[in-house]
Amino acid sequence: MSTSTSRPSSTTPATETVAIGTFDEPKTGVVRGLLRAQAFQIFLVLLAIIIVFSALAPDTFAQWSNFRLIIQNASILAVLAVGMTYVITTAGIDLSIGSVLVFSGVVAAITMRALGGEGWGVAAIGIVVSILSGLFWGLFNGFLIAKGKIPPLIVTLGTLGITLGLAQIITGGIDVREVPAVLTDSIGYGNIFGTVPMISVIALVVIVFGAVMLRFTRFGLYTLAVGSSEIAARRVGVKVDSQLIRVYMLSGGLAGLAGILSLSQFSTTAIAGQSQTNLNVIAGVVIGGTSLFGGVGTILGTVVGLFIPAVLQNGFVITGVQPFWQQVAVGAVLITAVYVDQVRRSSAMRGNPQGLWKKFVSGGRRG
């Protein structure tokens, strides 16, 4: 009578390890990999939009003064989008950034007014107060999400209402318009090299810092790992709760920075002017290639994704098309971007990456 002994399975577990990205990916050339990158594909879409509007209105759209206006208008959103990229990379969401921007700006404006309202000393205190306010609300969000295990959607939706409500209570619903002239003259409307907006240079510094940190630091690696799989990240020693708190503090701190930039640009707190900011930023981040499912993030793609609605709005106004069509176009691009991400994600998890067109031709069948 023979007895059979069971041997341990040599099959690689396909749960957390696969989620963190350890499955074998086919090696592709640099050019082919670039063409398959969603950020590059979105850049081609942006380039096509620019070419079309330039052909339709060469004397008005295709001018440096117009491009400068587009860049300047997108700068504050770009600062917010860097933090949002990190949040969405962890498979989270932050709906409160617009309201945190408003709250931080209100607190900073009132503080600067109380200190006399002029001079770089007062302005520096206002900048610090605005950023610290954003960091506080980021800590608040991160703690409830990481330690309280409350879904990010619920926490940040609640914070959206709390911060906006507090801003209205503090001001009585009336915008604060006393902003130090040094802020508006140097940051809001200041230029370097003659025509480059200072506010855009600040945004560029934040973008570069965010991109380098995401790709080349342990903080960025841990952010990607948490978004891929919290369970796998914990198993390899990542302090997931602490990482989530730091990520939401980053988002809040950048919202605070955006608050002082907004004060500088508009010379007012603009309490009622940020109702769509969070949705615009989220759309730009997702369109740019950061996955809503977590584990994939790209700062460069985020910047490209932000410029699509900005260029559409500007181009529609110049060519005489109703700007409301911008919302239709951005919505269509957003849905397409999420679908492409879903196709790639499901194909990669099967170990059979398919191109989007092959997906359509095969009807979604496994290749």
From TrEMBL:
Instruction: Name the keywords, alphabetized.
Output: Cell membrane, Membrane, Transmembrane, Transmembrane helix
UniProt entry tagged with the keyword Membrane: yes
List the transmembrane segments: 39-57, 69-88, 95-114, 120-140, 152-171, 191-212, 248-267, 279-312
Write down the superkingdom of origin.
Bacteria
* GO terms, molecular function: transmembrane transporter activity
Pfam families referenced in this protein's UniProt entry, alphabetically = BPD_transp_2
**How is it placed in the membrane, per its record?**
Multi-pass membrane protein
Q: Name one GO cellular component term.
A: plasma membrane
Q: Where in the cell is it found?
A: Cell membrane
The protein's name is: Ribose import permease protein RbsC
- Source organism of this protein record: Microbacterium lemovicicum
The encoding gene: rbsC_4
